[in-house]
Amino acid sequence: MKLRIEWQPGVSAKWYVNGTPVHTATSDISSYAMPWGVDCNTAGMKCDNVVISSSRDALPVVVNTLDEAKLLADGTGVSISGKIVTTSETDFNLTGISVYIEEADRSSGIRVVVAAPVAVLARGKKVDVVGTMGTTSAGERQIESPNVTIVDFSTDAALSAVGMNNRSIGGGDVGDPGSGVGQYGVSIQGSGTNTVGLLIKCWGVVTEKDADYLLISDGSGVIVRVDTTGMSSLPEVDDYVDVSGISSLYKPVSDRERLILARDRADIRP
Question: Most exposed residue of 68, 100, 143, 196, measured as fewest CB within 10 angstroms of its CB?
Fold first, then answer.
């Protein structure tokens, strides 16, 4: 079988098998990890029955860990394999189309921005992701324009949330995010392990309730915002709750604050 990769510079990439088009990608980086490591900058290069028919950007950087990915600058192609999904296709009420993946040892997680819900994606499945590194307006690193491939459909690897007090949520900076390589932590009392992107759990009393968020306090002097967009029948002020969700960042002005993205109503108890 002969695989041909045809790049249309700045527009799209097309994949052919035996002359039949099988896939079109609009991102600047190939949606398929190329294990043979060919140099895409050399027009017409042939390698193991692969023909690159026009010059293109370098292949994605293959990384082993999500922390390595976060040390890549925005716009850099990245390829990572075998990470565990911590959100399903229906989480977050589809208000912001995103998927989160995490290391099996729960050491790091990252947001993956998809154009539409990924069918049959569920918590615990393992995926390979190829895309481009980017950063949200709040400073959270993410993988953009990705190709997400499910490599293990079992959900046996589903991860439980890491419990922590409010003060530990967010953590300190990783790398040098001010220069675009690394991950910001929180601005106020942010130190220790960076938790942005991780599935976490915390406890506390509801101190404020609004249409799309709760504020909770655990007595440590640190308030955590919980995003509840699209949810109903939520706890009231002074109720004691435990909350699971994705550790993220909220930046209303200049400071980066602690934010938990509850995946669905079941993440907030009672």
Answer: 68
